């Protein structure tokens, strides 16, 4: 008897498999354009693309391409077509066949919390890895209070996590006005009664009230102090602000990543902001302690994920290894960050408008706007 | 446009619009035109890629108040 039942795999389970480098064969049945734009990646993942509409008459033709004895995961945009194909594979005698629950939609929205480390007063710092899109958020927790940096629109994840930690969210902060994803900072602040902080130079057109993130306005979490110290660091946007947390961690937003640097063109002012970006990366950050641990707002490649999925590196190490920090000539730097850039993130103009409060798309529309990779780094080809 | 057959897939999600459309197309004679109505925004690209792959002819595609209409001529 062949087992013809298919099993579901959740985005959380798939994330675990990617992070633990477990072998998996993925059959992605979306159309070729969507697949080439954005797909599931991992060191232990083998993936092929055959659109479901080429399999309407059955899967016999493709069976030789599907390995035997390996876990098979069928993936589509939402879920329906992956079940349709997975069932046929199971009927054809393949045993270990799964479909991705909620499809690429839920893959794009899943956040994996990873502990970064303990803070000096007993608090903790967490990174939330949005593995499907490459976004990173942070939560500092201390003595029953929490602050969330670069919150994503799946705000219930942060609320739930804070609750589990017995903490009340007091502050939500955005390092800059995001162009690749819809910020959850304002919504999270509204539902929890927290204060929403934004760099004023990125907020000139916003339609809502906020606190100004400026150097000198340190933010504390808990009754012993976790100091969140804003450092003005323009370049990706004119307002981009980094945070030093607990004198140990440097949250760089979209200015500095592990294997790349931020692109200056998403607000349409690449030429103007190149010198700001260079000044931030080659001077402002250089004046900070080289022992700071860099925690960016994105990763571009799966290779940037370290132990347990953490995305983190020492500032001094990045000055040695990151190609964006090792361009001696200013003209060459200008060329690197303004020419041959990767395509802009999907719907980035509408996303900026949404983050300014100028338009209010429905949840479905927000989801569609965010489809695809983040593409905030200059090297994200 | 003169159509020989209308396939109503309104309210259906992937893969049903294309499954239904394929069945209908199989029943047509060469040269006949099929109209497909769909509300599934996610399958617009799929539909176009499917027609291309099957080598039939996508005559036109329009949107009317959230309803997507495809006209395909069987080759």
Describe the fold and architecture.
- The complex is a heterodimer of chains A (381) and B (75).
- Chain A is an alpha/beta fold and 381 residues long.
- Chain A folds into 2 domains: 7-106, Rhodanese-like domain (Oxidized Rhodanese, domain 1), CATH 3.40.250; 111-369, Ribonuclease Z/Hydroxyacylglutathione hydrolase-like (Metallo-beta-lactamase, Chain A, 4-Layer Sandwich).
- Chain A has 11 helices and 18 strands.
- In chain A, the strands form 3 sheets. A 7-stranded mixed β-sheet of chain A has the order 6-7-8-9-10-11-12.
- In chain A, strand 8 and strand 9 (145-149) form a beta hairpin.
- The longest helix of chain A has 15 residues, at 270-284.
- Chain A starts with 6 loop residues before the first strand and ends in a 12-residue tail after the last helix.
- Chain B is of the alpha+beta class.
- Chain B has one domain: Translation Initiation Factor IF3.
- Chain B contains 2 helices and 4 strands, in the order E-H-E-H-E-E.
- In chain B, strands 1-2-4-3 form a 4-stranded mixed β-sheet, with helices on one face.
Task: State the main characteristics.
heterodimer; A: 381 residues; alpha/beta; Oxidized Rhodanese, domain 1; Metallo-beta-lactamase, Chain A; 2 domains; seven-stranded mixed β-sheet; six-stranded mixed β-sheet; 11 helices; 18 strands; 26% helix; globular; B: 75 residues; alpha+beta; Translation Initiation Factor IF3; four-stranded mixed β-sheet
